[in-house]
Amino acid sequence: MSYEWQAPKEGDVRSPCPALNAMANHGYLQLFEALQKVFNEDAILATFQVANCFTIYGKWFAGKISLEDLCQHGKLEHDASLCHVDTALGENWIVKKDLVDQLIASAIDGKIKPESLKNTFRARYLNSKENDPDFTFGTFQVQLAAGEYSLFLNIIGANTNKEVDAKVAEIFFHEERLADEWTRPNSSVSLPTIIKTNYEFSKIMNAEIKELN
Ligand code: HEM
């Protein structure tokens, strides 16, 4: 099997997750193995993620999850995403170029940093609050979004100082491709690392939400 990137073909299914789509576009499909191989997650983090999603989607008996399952709103999929519209406003798995541009414009010194994600989250939250009649963003959604930001900064940031080169981020979100300049984290990424950043983001996001309501 070749792991060259290939744009999805007519009829291929994709999800609202840029990381899973990037793995699918590169031809990796075994989730547990791919999370370790592609993103250098350690076995505990990969087990945690895979077990969590098999539970959330009730797929233990089926033994597999499709990218389409991940589009179900109210499970892992939530409102106020960085680069996807809310389910009530359109197709939640399609990447929106103007939203990618908004995210990339939040870069500081050419890098997407925690502050960039905080500012983009704020804009996305306000937009959903104004335009989405079904807008929901409670404690669970804060945890989910904070988890995504944490995975992004630690893994796509490749264990650097929780920052991602803006070009690498643009390619990841817009093309769902792992940029040539991107290097896999040189040591494995652990569950405690992800939880720590998740906790820091949850605090920041809860403070923002309080201010905006
Ligand atoms: C079992 C593994 C994973 C599952 C089941 C999963 C699932 C999802 C789902 C359903 C969403 C959509 C949430 C929304 O509505 O915005 C999402 C978004 C996201 N995921 Fe994943 N994901 C996984 C692994 C990863 C990894 C390893 C990374 C980073 C390397 C990652 C980064 C992201 C980011 C940054 C978003 C936010 C997209 C946006 O806000 O537009 N995910 N993921």
Automatic annotation (TrEMBL):
Which PROSITE patterns would you find in this protein's record? Answer: HEME_HALOPEROXIDASE
GO terms for MF: metal ion binding; peroxidase activity
Cofactor names from the entry are: heme b
Record's keyword terms, sorted = Heme, Iron, Metal-binding, Oxidoreductase, Peroxidase
All residue ranges annotated as the Heme haloperoxidase family profile domain in the record: 1-196
Among SUPFAM superfamilies, the record links this protein to: Cloroperoxidase
Gene3D superfamilies per record: Chloroperoxidase-like
**Domain of life of the organism in this record?**
Eukaryota
Q: Pfam families per the record?
A: Peroxidase_2
**What is the similarity comment for this entry?**
Belongs to the chloroperoxidase family.
Q: What is this protein called?
A: 23298_t:CDS:1
Q: Tell me what organism the protein belongs to.
A: Dentiscutata erythropus
